[in-house]
Design a protein that fits this description.
2 domains; alpha+beta; single chain; Beta-lactamase; 401 residues; 6-stranded antiparallel beta sheet
Length: 401
């Protein structure tokens, strides 16, 4: 009897360590069951451990899924170093930073496109009347920006704007509409559609457009139309009080690490809900979202997007082909190093400033979710090369299609 009890306890511990809790995330499978090599995936441990020793980041959660199953899920290192060291667990909640852009904002935009509320061809000025055009050397206005220019970072907007100066003009905290109006008047750096310039300002503007077109702020719209239907119960803007302690802290600001408070200053200026940043989530929830995309917009009988919407989002948008961007997703830019060297040109993903990333490969039905606290405590971590190595090891583990 004692031996049977011991065996049961060991099995329970194994399930707790190796897979998500019941009712959350993807089902768990051995790598070999989906055509992958356990031995090859085991190489990931050393890559993450060595990065922690180098102090690239205090901790990380890495999840690999294939064909709808989680085959690798592990937490490494610490969730925080100050004010005291705390362990990291695989179910902890991360500030996703710019991963907000495709997961929340671009998806919300495409849902409004599908429902006929907006068009990608619509002028930005239709929703933000003061949105200025680029003016050439002769003082002539260029072509007006359209919604797809915002989605692909080809609107001519600069990368960012000074949060302190913005606060003087629109208040702190401010209303998203006021910040979008301020952004609208910022001089454009070039004509639309010509050059890819990654800009948080594009996605702040898009979040305002989602609110204008739907009548609901981005956080409410995304929760109702995306996260709740998929069962992503630990994905949200502004984490609830009872879950703040499970959030992984980011940078130390004014002597205290930000925990459950968005790291991005412009998102923080808006009270935590923004189109460029502000979403918090777990590796398990992001794996569910990736599986929805790999399923052509559907998972477990729940449809979020149409197959054609997913295709358009995850291919280089033809009107701005040289940008290397899809509608929210990155495919072939300087930011695509997290693809590694082996995943194909049809794969796509996104990274976040805080140290988060997701990469999805439809060819092999594989997703790699890597969440780190790179900016804790002093914003000095570096993970660019490591992301590529992780992707290479995962891709090399795929032995059968």
């Amino acid at each position: 009897m004692r031996k049977l009890v011991s065996t049961a306890v060991l099995m329970l511990l194994f399930l707790t360590a190796s897979g998500p809790a019941a009712g959350a995330g993807l089902p768990v499978a051995k790598p070999e069951a989906v055509g992958m090599s356990s031995k090859q995936l085991a190489r990931l441990d050393a890559i993450i451990d060595e990065a922690i020793v180098r102090k690239d980041f205090p901790g990380a959660v890495l999840l690999v899924s294939r064909k709808g199953k989680t085959v690798y899920r592990k937490a490494f290192g610490a969730s925080q170093l100050v004010p005291e060291r705390r362990p990291l667990t695989a179910d902890m909640i991360f500030d996703l930073a710019s991963v907000t852009k495709p997961v929340a904002t671009a998806t919300a935009v495409m849902l409004l496109v599908e429902s006929g509320d907006i068009r990608l061809w619509d002028r930005v000025r239709t929703y933000v009347p003061g949105f200025s055009a680029w003016f050439g050397e002769k003082g002539l206005a260029g072509e007006e920006a359209r919604l797809y220019h915002l989605l692909t970072h080809t609107s001519g907007l600069p990368p960012y704007t000074d949060p302190k100066e913005a606060a003087k003009l629109v208040g702190d905290p401010c209303v998203m509409a006021d910040l979008a109006g301020l952004i609208a008047g910022i001089p454009k750096e070039g004509p639309v559609g010509r050059e890819f310039v990654y800009s948080c300002l594009n996605y702040i503007t898009l979040a305002h457009i989602v609110h204008r077109a739907s009548g609901r702020p981005l956080d409410e719209f995304a929760a109702e139309r995306i996260f709740k239907p998929l069962g992503m119960t630990r994905t949200f803007f502004r984490p609830p009080d009872d879950l703040v302690d499970q959030c992984v802290p980011t940078e130390v600001v004014d002597g205290r690490p930000l925990r459950g408070v968005v790291h991005d200053p412009l998102a923080r200026l808006q009270g935590g809900v923004s189109g460029n940043a502000g979403l918090f989530s777990t590796a398990d929830d992001l794996a569910v979202f990736a599986e929805m995309l790999l399923g052509g917009g559907e998972r477990n009988g729940v449809r979020i997007l149409s197959p054609l919407a997913v295709e358009r989002m995850t291919e280089i948008y033809p009107q701005v082909g040289e940008s290397g961007r899809g509608l929210g997703w990155d495919l072939d830019t300087d930011y695509s190093t997290l693809r590694g060297d082996l995943f194909g040109p049809g794969s796509y993903g996104h990274s976040g400033y805080t140290g988060t990333s997701i990469w999805i490969d439809p060819e092999t039905h594989t997703a790699v979710v890597l969440l780190t606290n790179r900016v804790h405590p002093d914003d000095k971590g570096d993970i660019i090369a490591m992301r590529s190595k992780v992707a290479n090891v995962v891709a090399a583990a795929i032995l059968a299609r």
